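Possible regression after last week's pipeline update?

I re-ran a chain I had predicted before the update to compare outputs. Posting the input and the new output here so someone can diff against the archived version. Not blocking, just want to make sure nothing changed silently.
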Amino acid sequence: MELTYYWYPKCSTCRKAKKWLDDNGISYKDIHIVENPPSRSTLEDLYKNSGLELKKFFNTSGQRYRDLGLKDKLKDMSDTELLDLLASDGMLIKRPLTTDGKKVTLGFKEEDFKESWT
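New output (post-update):
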């Protein structure tokens, strides 16, 4: 199983997750989330497979999220609008985003990675 690992190299959480994957001998293809963000259709598939709320895919601590005032806007947006917004800017996506095509993890919690990827 090869994972796809969307990350931002300057993000310390992303670097911790990458080290965890390396330390556990898990192969992955890393993709710079800002230079090559997942497409809208990829995001829609990930969302459907994840079982998570679409709002969980947003990087709520990011500058871009705050600049756009999304905290108050998200609750009134449809899934279509939310997916369009996520696809428009890799900095809006919670990272790292890790997937094997079926399962999805957002962010890095060691327990979640152990459960999902080992």
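Follow-up from reviewer: compared with the archived run. The domain at 3-117 is CATH 3.40.30.10 (Glutaredoxin). Marking as no regression found.
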